[in-house]
Design a protein that fits this description.
rod-shaped
Length: 105
Amino acid sequence: MLTLQKKHCMPLCHIKAALKNIFMTREQKILSLLAQFKELGIDKQIDYDKFYLYSLITHSTAIEGSTVTEIENQLLFDEGISAKGRSMTEQLITGLNTKCGMSEM
C-alpha cells in the first residue's frame, strides 16, 4: 500500500508577509515595530514619567548625602514602606523632594 505524505503548504497571506518582511528597509521595519508597540499598548503599561521622577529625586538626594537607593525610593513612594536602616533625615529629604518634583509636573 502506497501512502502519500501531505506537504505542508503555507497560506498565501503568510508567504506575502514573509516576503514583505524580507524586502523591508530598516526604517520600515522600525516603523512597523513601533506601530505594533503602540497597537499592543505596551507604552501604557509603564509610567515612564513616574520612574523618571524617581530617578531624578534619587540622584538629587544623593548629591545631598542620602544613600537611599532608587528601589527603596520606589517602595517609599508607591507602597509607603520606608527603607530599613535608613535615617529619618534621609527619608524626609526624599519625601520633600518628591513633593517639590510632583508640584512641577
